[in-house]
Amino acid sequence: MKKANVIDRIFHGGLPASPRNQKGLAFAPTNIALCKYWGKRDIELNLPVTSSLSIALPDKGTMTYLSLQDKATDTILVNDEEIALTTPFAERLVCYLDLFRPKKNWHLHIDIKINIPIAAGLASSASGFASLVAALNDLGAWSLTKQQLSILARLGSGSAARSFWMGFVEWNAGVQSDGMDSFAMPLDIEWPELRVGILTLSNKEKPISSREAMQRTVNSSVLYSAWPKKIAQDLAILKQAIHVKNFSLLAGTAESNALTMHATMLSSWPPICYSLPETLAAMRKVWELRHEGLEVYFTQDAGPNLKLLFLEKNQAELTEAFPDMEVISVFEG
Amino acid sequence: MKKANVIDRIFHGGLPASPRNQKGLAFAPTNIALCKYWGKRDIELNLPVTSSLSIALPDKGTMTYLSLQDKATDTILVNDEEIALTTPFAERLVCYLDLFRPKKNWHLHIDIKINIPIAAGLASSASGFASLVAALNDLGAWSLTKQQLSILARLGSGSAARSFWMGFVEWNAGVQSDGMDSFAMPLDIEWPELRVGILTLSNKEKPISSREAMQRTVNSSVLYSAWPKKIAQDLAILKQAIHVKNFSLLAGTAESNALTMHATMLSSWPPICYSLPETLAAMRKVWELRHEGLEVYFTQDAGPNLKLLFLEKNQAELTEAFPDMEVISVFEG
Questions:
Q1: How are beta strands A75-78 and A107-114 bridged, if at all?
Q2: How does pLDDT run across B81-91, given as a tens digit for each residue?
Q3: Is B260 on the interface with A (CB under 8 A)?
Q4: ipTM
Q5: Same domain, yes or no, for B110 and B239?
Q6: How many C-beta atoms lie closer than 10 Å to residue B153's C-beta?
Q7: Which residue in the set A223, A281, A283 is minimally distant from B223, CB to CB?
Q8: pTM to 2 decimal places
Q9: Measured between alpha carbons, how far is A114 from B321 in angstroms, rounded to an integer?
């Protein structure tokens, strides 16, 4: 109901009767939050309690190909494998597409290529929903602005709101109950020396979705009451650090922000712990290296993997310390 | 200065001129907090921000033998090994004893026997200071009440205030600036089926003292602002759970309380993490067993070791799951 209202407002009264094109195609990068999105003020619209700030990983993400098909259902391929419509993943996707069907018997062939592990805390759903909505925009020749696409993608997955730009992106929480002021914007500052190192410690699907973990945290963690204050502080510091290119301030704040998000989860009941012993071992190694003078920090999302933050000048040393790490030059995509 | 004032108040104007006896002897058990003491409102007097609740481990603790000696300094033996007076441990002890010297040239031979690892999160300083002050009371034949001893021991180490009783003990935070209302009291409820399993995962001394970790948390963790609220809730639930003998309520609340304390530390800067990968592996094993229906919970103090909480009926199964665990029948000492 609330979602349909958003569609109405974006399309000024209703979806165009039928799409202009037979096919639609779009890529969206995944994004890593330096200041996390954790907790919703509206569950249906994925409206966040707080603003957040991310960095895009230019070569990592999702390409979605859409084509109209004359069938009674949608079909979904993920990396060339057909997904049963009864899986939770397909149900979520089909349900999201329902928002955009101009008539009842209108179905799509959805071909998704994704080059990051799914549901392992690498923001696969962020790039997934962003690329889907951008592909719909291409299919329908709607010519929506990125701001409008950001609002629509948010309805599928909160952090997808941030996946329409490269570089630093801020998602403003907004205050309106319909969420029309809750969308992301790029920061337009480049930092070519910045590196993100992906440390994949487990590819297994996470035992609890971030959607559910977020809700449990908001409902049961006493510490969550202090989270908005933490975000307000960190967001201001991060933007200042980006502005003056102070790496240790940027990355230290991002690490503290991630640890604080996981801290609110530990304090939920039943406790939520995405970290594996391997995660903790990698964290301790980062702290040790930093203690020895090497400027390296980490961030962690709703999964056991870590993303290291460092500068180009330390890349060789860090690749030696973490031979399995995949290094991403975030501003050289 | 503040400490000397406490001594004055307890001894009504000053210490007795010289001790009645040549020797003093006392044992104090260590205690495991189910509701943690974390954060001070007065650093010098070890006055806590919040109240706390613990359970004594009857056979684990410290025996302190004191004897007057005609030497220019104190001598300190720990488990038959002489400790140099220049070590931080000895300095802290000598400095504490300075509060109680009736005249300048008054020195003690201090023979400490302790059967728990020192400074590994097993509350060695709690039983240490409690047994020391109780041995002084014996040496001086002061006939102080346990309440008075609790206040004096707190000046050495906060949690020592709780180490004068067996069973459940509550330390009331108090509100007075001199701390004369900040002492512990026993709950006088027995629960013979209750078991504590000590899971020693590392005997190494902790990298950061709980004293320092507490201060850093109070000063830098945004989440700490929610800690007093968590304590107020948990303390009420724990007392109710003890009253009605609801084990899962008791142990679940204790686990959540411990995780929340560690959560406030993770959110400090630099982050504080007492857990080792082995700690996390053991936690996950506890969660798995619980998921399978076995009622087992854990608590963790300022160190990597865990203390499991369970009932006698599950002891055999848990000893099989954790073969290295030492089981303590807390009400059968």
A1: parallel
A2: 999 999 888 99
A3: yes
A4: 0.92
A5: no
A6: 32
A7: A223
A8: 0.94
A9: 41
